[in-house]
Design goal:
The chain has about 350 residues and is an alpha/beta fold. It folds into two domains: about 140 residues, 3-Layer(aba) Sandwich (Rossmann fold), CATH 3.40.50.720; about 190 residues, 3-Layer(aba) Sandwich (Rossmann fold), CATH 3.40.50. It is built from twelve helices and eleven strands. The strands form two sheets. It has a six-stranded parallel β-sheet with strand order 7-6-8-9-10-11, with helices on both faces. A five-stranded parallel β-sheet has the order 2-1-3-4-5, with helices on one face. Helix 2 links the parallel strand 3 and strand 4. The longest helix has 19 residues. The site of 1,4-dihydronicotinamide adenine dinucleotide (NAI) has 32 residues, from helix 4 and helix 6. The site of 1,4-dihydronicotinamide adenine dinucleotide has 32 residues, from helix 4 and helix 6.
Length: about 350
């Protein structure tokens, strides 16, 4: 029996994982409400693996504790792995993730945010519920003919690209590792920033991409640009974003993720005082829409996450331990490695 400590368990996780685990008696989950942090890592004592999500902290100190307690696998139930010190884990604890559970879920959420924003649906919804049928202030703009700039043309970015084309938009893209043999028009990042009416972020958070949308990047953008972030909060310098909005440079910002979301998102904080003044200020802006990291949240995605995670765990502990979804760090470059590797990390 493979014992897995499941951190930051939410009701929807428990439902989907219990369903998949019922068909796999070799894996047993212990659902813990708390997030994994240095203070809670001791709860993993006696478990073979931990299952974690985007806002669990899997730092060097946490990895040391997990290793000491006999944990040999970190199973991320998400795609992004910026919260895991993968280099530190190398040689000690294997790390696996769920590279794709429903790229459609995230791309469609980005599209939902875009349409909501540019057609002011969020305002209209509130108005009509209040029997206010006035149209003043609800003027939007056509997406048709506009230029969408997509940063990161992986699984999600490409689906969003297709959606944008469906609306008759011109699409340009930037990727540090452009897809070979595609019909995507790749341009340098600076050119994308300068030409795009809508900019959507779909690349991972790394040291290279942290704050890639900062004051300088915003200065290059068109006035009225719509920025969409369904990737990771820290891709955007939120202070610079706020300044851009205040200066009327940025037409709208749609954020499913936020740099300091870890202690805020995923919980009901209504009735509490929000200590994050930057987020509070952003939320007070009429042209900012925030969803709390919900882009992945579809039934299809939850089912796929649970199934892939259980398969990842079984692959790592059974047979030769080889798992296609291992985040290998042997070569030191996880992005290249992810695309080319076909062997066990250590
Ligand atoms: P992917 O790995 O298929 O694609 C990422 C793309 O970004 C690749 O084409 C890669 O070459 C590119 N890239 C890497 N470094 C770059 C850089 N420095 N500059 C520009 N491009 C770079 O990943 P996928 O599945 O498309 O996911 C994208 C991101 O979406 C994930 O990293 C994750 O952070 C986020 N995500 C958010 C979710 C949500 O619920 N809001 C759910 C799932 C993923």
């Amino acid at each position: 029996m493979i014992k897995v400590a499941f951190f930051d368990a939410k009701e929807y996780d428990i439902q989907s994982f219990t369903k998949v685990a019922e068909g796999n008696p070799k894996v047993a989950f212990k659902f813990l409400e708390t997030k994994l942090t240095e203070d809670t890592a001791d709860l993993a004592k006696g478990f073979d693996a931990v299952c974690v999500f985007v806002n669990d902290t899997v730092s060097a100190a946490v990895i040391d504790k997990l290793y000491e307690h006999g944990v040999r696998l970190i199973a991320l139930r998400c795609a992004g792995y910026n919260n895991v010190d993968v280099a530190k884990a190398y040689g000690k604890i294997h790390v696996v993730h769920v590279p794709a559970y429903s790229p459609y879920a995230v791309a469609e959420h980005a599209a939902a945010l875009l349409l909501t924003s540019v057609r002011r649906i969020h305002k209209a919804y509130n108005r009509t519920r209040d029997f206010n049928f006035s149209l003043n202030g609800l003027t939007g703009f056509d997406l048709h003919g506009k230029t969408a700039g997509i940063i990161g043309t992986g699984k999600i970015g490409r689906i969003f690209l297709g959606i944008c084309r469906g609306f008759g938009m011109n699409v340009i893209a930037y990727d540090a590792y452009p897809a070979k043999d595609s019909d995507i028009e790749y341009v340098p990042l600076e050119e994308l920033l300068e030409r795009s009416d809508i900019i959507s972020l779909h690349c991972p958070l790394t040291e290279q991409t942290r704050h890639m949308i900062d004051a300088d990047a915003i200065a290059r953008m068109k006035k009225g640009v719509v920025i969409l972030n369904t990737s990771r909060g820290a891709l955007i310098d939120a202070e610079a974003l706020l300044e851009g909005i205040k200066a009327r440079k940025i037409g709208a910002a749609c954020l499913d993720v936020y740099e300091e979301e870890a202690d805020i998102f995923f919980e009901d904080r209504s009735g509490h005082i929000l200590n994050d003044e930057l987020l509070a200020r952003l939320l007070s802006m009429p042209n900012v829409i925030v969803t709390s990291h919900q882009a992945f949240l579809t039934e299809e995605a939850l089912g796929n996450i649970a199934e892939t995670t259980v398969n990842n765990i079984l692959s790592c502990f059974e047979n030769d331990g080889m798992c296609d979804n291992e985040l290998c760090y042997r070569c030191g470059n996880i992005e290249t490695c992810k695309k080319e590797r076909k062997q066990r990390c250590f």
